[in-house]
Each structure stands twice: as structure tokens, then as C-alpha cells.
Amino acid sequence: MNTAFTSVRSRLIALDRANVDTDAILPKQYMTSLSRTGFGQYAFDNWRYADIGYPGKPLAEREPINSFCLHQPSAQGARILLGRENFGCGSSREHAVWALKDLGIAVLIAPSFADIFRNNCFKNGMLPIQLAAEQIDALFTAVTHNPWDEWTVDLQACMVIGPDQHIRFQVEPERRHRLLLALDDISVTEQKMDQIQAYEQKRREQEPWLFS
Length: 212
Description:
- The protein is of the alpha/beta class.
- It has 2 domains: 7-181, Aconitase, domain 4 (Alpha-Beta Barrel), CATH 3.20.19.10; 184-212, no CATH class.
- Helix content is 32%, strand content 14%.
- A hairpin with a 4-residue loop joins strand 6 and strand 7 (159-162).
- This is 3-isopropylmalate dehydratase small subunit.
């Protein structure tokens, strides 16, 4: 179940790669359940580790690639991931979003996202923010020089706020509304139960033979 999204304050994780596909985010061998949890430890597995991983492999046996962004000290506990264009391309697996969320990521910032991946983000309570390429470049530069700086993503104001920077972003009003109130497709439908019940009652009266 999603939780209400208002603002997130965090350091930035800088993943300086374009066309990050969903198989890179969560390799296929880890898609072993529909529980939505437990996938974070396998996120970006082929980039985080030099050895071949598999579900349940002990962390002590892994060979970390220390240069990868998730291994940087400033990335520990960070909740905002900065990427390049066409983030989330490839197959439509929702598991990729589950892995990022389980990793602790609440906000993605990139110049563009694959459509299905972006839709899956909103459905799972994650905020994908699309900014102009030059704004993304400036954020990468900021992280390079000051990796420990904290940034705030304020969904109410639609602003990314950092040291000496206030960057406005846009998000569709309905999707913003859903994130702020932690609404998913089921809860949105439940809000219209009176209308649904009134419609069903009207059908019973007009076409009783359908319900006999």
C-alpha cells in the first residue's frame, strides 16, 4: 500500500548513464515473486557486483564494484536517484519499480522516462521528475562537487530545492493528487462507490431480467 507523498529530503545518488533499462534495474533471475518487497538488495545487481548473482546468494560472497554509485558513502540512505535520458526503457516489468522502492528510492530525476516505467512509478507511489537536460547537467555537476549536500523535493510546491537552487517541475494534476493522498486505482474507485451502487440499482430497475 502506498503512503502519502509530501516532500523528501535527501542526498542525491548520481547514476550517470543513459538508457537504463529495466533488466539493468532488476535482472530477470530475481523476478521470483509478486510480493513487491525484497527486491532492493538485487537492484542494479550486474553493475553493483562483479560476480554473477542469484536469489539468496550470501552478501559475503559478492564482489562489489566499488566505483558504482550505490557503493559511494554519500549514497547510503539516499532516497533521490538522478539519471539520464530514457530511464526505465526495455521490458515493462513492474518489478523494476518495486526494486527501486525497496532500495529506499522515493524520487527519480531524469530528462525523460520510458512511458510504461513512468506509469508504474506513479502506481507505486514513486515520483518521477522530468527536467531539461541542462538542469540535469547542473545537478550532476553539483553532486560531483558536493556529494553530501541535501536536497528537498516538495511535491506540494512542485520544487526541487538545493543549496542556492530552486528548480520547478511539472506533474499532471491527477497524478500529483494521487501521490499527495496515497491513492491507488482501487482507492480511487472506492471513492465513487455511491455512484457505482446507484448505477447498479438503476440497472436492476430498468433490466431486472439480467439479475434474475
